[in-house]
Predict the 3D structure of the following.
Amino acid sequence: MIPKILSFVRWLWRCLIPAKLRHFCHVGVQRGQRLLRLPEHSKLRVVGLFSASHGISRGASLTCRALDQLGLPYVRVDASSLVHSPKDAHLLEAHALGWIIQMNPPELNAIVRNGGPGAMKGPRYGYWAWELPTAPAEWRVSEAYVEEIWAVSKYTAKAFGSFSKSVRTMPHPIILADYAPVVAAQKRAEFSAIAFFDFNSSVARKNPGGTISAFKAAFGDDPSTCLTIKTQNGHLFPEILDQLKRSATSNITIIDEVWDHGRVLSEIKSADVLLSLHRAEGFGLTMAEAMALGTPVIATGWSGNMDFTDVTCALLTPYALIPVRDERGFYQGQHWADPDLAFATDSLRRLRAEPNLGPRLSKAALKAIKSKLSPEAWYSYFPLGLRWRIFRSAMA
């Protein structure tokens, strides 16, 4: 039966498709096959901290997925060990069509130092993220190592505006098909919310205290509701972790452990809302992935996430800009957002009380991610010179 079907399809192909178009398609397939067999110097190289568990690492993985989806040739280079030691310097001793270096200047400086003088031949692009309105002055030294700065959002691009190298907005790409198979974790309550942060970032910036306050104001200790705050590296800051736990009610759980990314997505998908009452975000990848999973988002309406969130696809919390106050001193000077917790409280109640609100937000969110963060949209941000080199290499 199958041979007959294939024979019929071939007959339709010959009869209905003009010869010139058939030739064009055949050449396209041949070129696509040649693209995969290109020599190493005719490929992109994506350099990232793939072994780590944080947003920068995840961003590098998404870059590779987008290149896969687009059929563009690349080599993945895990430079995690090079941040601390030169023993894997050979990983950078190559010539590439272009180097997409997905790490911030402190790590970039380390891999350049440990990679040796012959490292990374070919144009280099520094894929950087920063959370405040102005990037650190000490990052300027890293400009010498890149041809162009790729900033993860328009907001972040402005932060690098005073640097001497050209700055290009380059958001993280999201492939919606990757999120469709995710199986939701078991729900913890009739209405559940989830939030994430890493103690190695700034607790003040992620604002878990504000998240707890808004949830308590919305639902008290109602056992039919729950808030899960997933953290990591809390053991390094036991006093802050203990303080957060003491502020929680019986329907708020704080989990301090490392989850693999599959579990992170599964837990987000099971939630009725992702809460991000941040004071500043360079991009807001967790929010983007929640939207890709169809989970409604309540977020501060400021900073990097505004490239892909608006009032149609998320509940955006108003804010006031206030001076930065970070007890750890990681961030200082400048200003960031103080989200309106009363609005966040009301948004939580609305999501629970209005059964059509969540699905409406989810539908709009999927549309926003597809139009703004798809691999095709992401590739349109590439420098014309790099796209030309890719094209010319494919045609060779």
Summary: DSSP finds 14 helices and 14 strands in the chain. Residues 102 and 293 are 24 Å apart (CA to CA).
